[in-house]
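ok so I'm stuck.
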Amino acid sequence: MKPFLFLILLPIWANAQTSSCFGTPARGSLEKGVQLPFKGQNFTAYSLVGYLAGRTYVHSEVKDIILNAYMSLTEQLPSVVYKYAETGLVKGGVFKPHKTHQNGLSADFMTPMMAADGRSVHLPTHPFNKFGYAIEIDHKGHYGELKIDFDAMAAHIVQLDKEAKSNGYQLLRVIFDPQLQDLLFKSKYKDYLRSHIQFSTKPSWVRHDEHYHVDFKIPCQ
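replied:
not stuck anymore, here's the structure
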């Protein structure tokens, strides 16, 4: 087996366990955390470096929700590609520079982008832009010649919520730059977002413009 293929498939073997979470996203821990696959049919991790450093672990139920959502989106939006970002450590706990992500129930997702010709593309993430976290999206959702695909982003959030509910859980909150939320609420999924998703309306300590943060509501000890 090729080494890189093993890297992709390893989490499938390692994830055959049930996680337990403790405390809250801002003060908690995780037992038997599982790592998301590095890539799939329509998604990839934000960084091989971050992946190998163990910064993409979540609660096992969160992993199922995320992967099932991506799988559903391959049918709904077959030409759209997604990129997930940092989630947490295998045992949770302090996860610098984040203030949360401590109990396996938080995940960051890079905004899906659209090129000038309409193609779905990934937001560039590399060490020189702090793996995407240093990118600044303007008030119209543009980053150079790229722009946020708000329909694709909204579809992802909707599917995460539906998958969570089908497993008996729900989304606790979504954190996304309040100045850009108006554009998100103009997407074709605006009615569902307004009715079912709790968005943070106050600016957070760092601007969530190039990524959106999702907290999942799953019982913890």
